[in-house]
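To illustrate this point, we now present one chain and its tokenised fold:
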Amino acid sequence: MAGVRRSRVHAFASALCAGAAFCALFAAASPEATAQTATPGDFSIPEGQKLLLASDELIYNNDTGVVIATGGVQIDYGSYKLVADRVEYDQNTGRMRAIGSVEMIEPNGNRIYADDLDVTDDFADGFVNALRIETPDNTRIAAESAERSGGVQTTFNNGVYTACEPCRENPERAPFWQVKAERVIQNGETKTIRLERARFELFGMPIAYLPYLEIPDHTQKRKTGFLSPSFRTSENLGYGVSVPFYVAISPHMDATFTGTGYTKQGFLAEAEFRQKFANGEHTLRMAGISQLKPGQFAAGTSDAMEDERGMIASRGQFRINPRWTFGWDVMAQSDNNFSRTYGIEGYSASTQKSEIYLTGISNRSYFDLRTYRFDIQDATLTNAAERQQAFVHPSLDYQRTFSEPVAGGELALNVNGYSLSRKANDFNTLGVPFRYKGFAGDNSRLSAELEWRKTLTTMNGLRLTPIFAARGDLNSVDVDTPPNPANYNGTFAGNGSHARGMVTAGLEASYPVLMTTENSSHVIEPIAQVFVRPDERLAGGIPNEDAQSFVFDATSLFERDKFSGFDRTEGGTRANVGIRYTGTYANGLTTHATFGQSYHLAGLNSFATPDLSQATRNSGLEEDVSDFVGAVGLATSNGLSFAASARFDKDDFRAERTDVRAGYGNSRLSLSTTYSEIKAPRPNTFGEPDRREVTGFASLKLHEYWKVAATASYDLVDKKFNRHAFGILYEDECFAFSIAYEDIRDDFNTEGRDWKVGARLSFRTLGDFDAGGDVSALLNPSF
């Protein structure tokens, strides 16, 4: 080589040129670089950036104008980092080459590996040999060679695309899945990766030929185009294929249009529009079908009687400010079972609630105002069950705990109210008296309650809590069919306006005793309460809408008012006596237990008076001395848990209501079982049977990626399964597969299907292949 000089100035200048050229090459090599610049195609390094270059040797040839850096070349320029064995830059031809073990990290996180790079001086066109790219989301593209053209498009020749990591023991082995294509085109303007004349391979074996496949690159979360199809099967609908098409309308708005063809019922069209705002979001969903063979459904059902069927739904939620939220979720459909029969996502439940709400939450207060109605989705033509549901317009719930103490104690305000109407009566006429669950007509109530309490602790550890409460209610009743005195043994307040009031003075005394040993600590706390009140006014004579789900157990034993809602209020003088226990052990075991009884001391027993809804019947509190209630539980550090609660008859200690739950879980195995039993009341005027049910769930991780699960619910009285499901799941970093079977008991055979099989194949970044719907919920114990 003639005229070789080793000058620091020339070396730095040549390094700057070589580094700038090299970095600009790789800026142009990936469309992701456009996110770093203001305009597409501009891959220049910002002004003022300093280049840092390190190598074993720098050579500048004055005769040829070639700069050469050799031996562990490292370049750090802007947000780009580069290593290579050798870098050559020709100032005359404007070409730059990086040779040998080239590795580049781009600002967007891409890692680019190559053996040889050759680019032009404007860095818009170039050629790369033996290229491999790893993106931040763990997708990989490898190719024999790659060409850069137009500054925004890179074409990989004989490329391979996959989202699977290489095998650690044998990196040369083919990944689980990969797509080999004659050309892989990465477009920086459209942000897509297009594979042409491709073969889809599993374990290195080709299983499908793909003439054309286009997917968004890792920077694109939203891209217009077809989504993966799904497959469905149903006894009454036939086989179905769903093809969704996604449209990215704007950065804040998109839509999905889905067409499903069923072999028996024809074409189902669905559309969903979604829009995000600065303070919330809105979704509009529509679906419709003209049924080809309504006769496939059971005769005399709404599914069989309707030809043109459809629905429209809207859902939105907006944050007015950090404390207040306004929203809605409403649905209207052509008949009472369309959305359930065709499994419209988000609207296929047997009971679908439509509501509009305003909610506010702060540190010491809560406000909720909403109006709602219920769609009972069944196949009956009369729609009787839905007509019996309340249309609430509206309901109000406000709670506030005042921050400033009052007389040294805590003062809380609770306001609750509703206004509702029904189209049809909801009566159970089996036995006498009748059970009036709801009346056709109008009913409303507004209640306000103040409660004050303060806890005092004496020198010897006795805790005393005085409690005072005052409440007022205003009711308006206008029912179409008042209860018949011959079928109801109570007194109906009658239509019109009614005012009620209740004041309570109470005292709670508890004496917690701490006992410790070398390896454990225990707290035993005897508790006694007494509440003095006047009799409940109009007890059981006003329609009961919100206090029907009454259960007397260990959790409600020490409640001042044991009713679950405001339509009933506990009156009379009552005492609650019991004991609570908690224990902790050094080995991680924790235990707890509660046992007690309640006593009606004076006045009118609210639980012994007739109730229109029969909510207090067989409650265990009807007599002056209540049934016993208790609960025990334990949990261990190795994942074992057990809990049991029961109500025992005060006379013969018969278990009137029993709930037992046991579970175990670790990193591989999860087991849970629940047994529930409710004895028929004595005397049994409604002819009700005992109710006994056991449910179980099991999940086992067979391998790092394999999992099996099963769940079942069995009616011990009818000796039938209410529900059973089982499935298997495989999931790793690039692929997921699941299949499950579910059967739900339906004694009336009015639904489109009582069983279903679901399967899903998911290839990360390529999409999902769905048959029968999402099956993940079938393997969930809470489903």
User: Anything to note?
Assistant: Residues 1-44 have pLDDT under 50 and may be disordered. Helices lie at 8-29, 302-305, 338-341, 384-387. The radius of gyration is 36 Å. The CA atoms of residues 640 and 664 lie 4 Å apart.
